[in-house]
Amino acid sequence: MTTSKITQTSISDSLADAAEDHALVSVPEHDRQSGWRLALSPVSVATALVIFAMAGFTVVLAGFSIGLFVGLLIAVLAFTLSKALGNMAFATGVSSTITSRFFGFGLRGSSIGSIIFAFMILGFLAIESALLYEGTLLMLDLDDTWTTRIVIYGLLTLLWISLAIFGLKIALNASGFMTIITLLVTVYLIVQIYVIQGANPMEVLTYDGVVPGGFVPKFEAAFGVMGATAGTIALVTTDFARYARSRKDVTILSLAGPIVQNLLMVVLGALVMIGGMPAVIDYILARNAGMSPGEAAEAGSTFIMENTGAFFVIFAGWIGFITIYASQAKAQAINAYSGSLSLVNLIDALTGWKPGRASMVVAGNIIALLMIAGGILGHFTQYLAYLGTMTFTMCGIMIADYYFVRRAKYTRATHKIENWNWAGLLTMALSSAVGFILMATGVWALGFLASLALSLIIYPVLRRMLPEGTWTKFASEEQALEEAA
């Protein structure tokens, strides 16, 4: 009986530890892992349904050659941000939003970064569930009723919670398995299009895009679609870099997401989306009597972004249905996982209450459901660049603090943490505002890049004008982590 009780207690403690997953404390050395294994996390996000759509849509807009060139540039940018932030998380051993306590924002100020990142990552959680729902309706020929919504979204939410609630190990295991399935069925789709159906791949490789004009308008259109995600993939990478064993592992981890998302997915997305477009055009013509083929082609390009799950089902039936579920299960596990880390820091930073990470997984999924109810599928992509402005600014502030102000010098014993880093918060407001204005007024569609550049310039200046301790109190790193322990 005693042995049984001890065993049950040990299992219970192990499950509790797995659920918490060092959410508010530094990851110990014995839990560190290789960069190759950790790379499954950003790769899972990079091969999600919405990324598939964005990558394919990039080529639809700008053409294959410009789309791939833009993908290369964004991959370099995303790797640079991921590596810079990853080294910081490796040093502190904590997630991206907890790391922002130490560099750029302060203990309480890190709540701002948590709100930004949580809204972005939970937005992806919501929109990808919505895309999956649309594909499920079409595949199973279901009506969009409240009963259908409750059942399907309820089951999807329970799945995302179960994959994310027990921490890194389950999330990575699910990611590895589902990534293999996603890539295999994608290859099958490409064979089906270009070998069995006889489509000409050169039509994709020489595709010129629907955006009129020369290089500049096509470049801006392509960068506007994919570029804003660079900050998000960098922050997701940072959440997992805390588990890295060495800086070499951080490099491997930092390369994985940007390469897959911005190069591999542009190629695969273009081959599948453009190659499968005739089937979608036929589907649209069949459902819209009197529509011309040209109008159907134009509607089809929009259909890729707004109904990606249905796109795969229309083109490939059950194989497409398997594709969307395999691509989503792994990505949603990581989205829910990273979202929970942000929410944990948000609650702790603002109130001092230490919520369990498992409860924040549930809370994050509830927030995603509310976003879906608010119609995020029709609006999220429109505001992606604006959200990207804030994630880019957040990344820039943290990098400027660590590398420019502190010269990459960090020691646990001497590091101090402010409650509010006003230099960082003011930089966030100024840099983000400039990016918003540039995009909203149509002056520059890539205003989020201006926000990144400004944050790197403005923060060191404001930090000199508002040195540590200005208008706030200090807490040592040990105190901050003890408060969070």
TrEMBL record:
GO terms for cellular component: plasma membrane. It is a multi-pass membrane protein. The keyword Membrane applies. Gene3D superfamilies: Hydantoin permease. One of its GO terms (molecular function) is cytosine transmembrane transporter activity. It is found in: Membrane. InterPro entries: CodB, Pur-cyt_permease. Keywords: Membrane, Transmembrane, Transmembrane helix. Pfam families: Transp_cyt_pur (PF02133). Its main location: membrane. The chain crosses the membrane at residues 38-55, 61-81, 102-126, 146-168, 180-199, 219-241, 262-285, 309-327, 358-377, 383-405, 417-438, 444-462. Belongs to the purine-cytosine permease (2.A.39) family. This is Cytosine permease. It comes from Enteractinococcus helveticum.
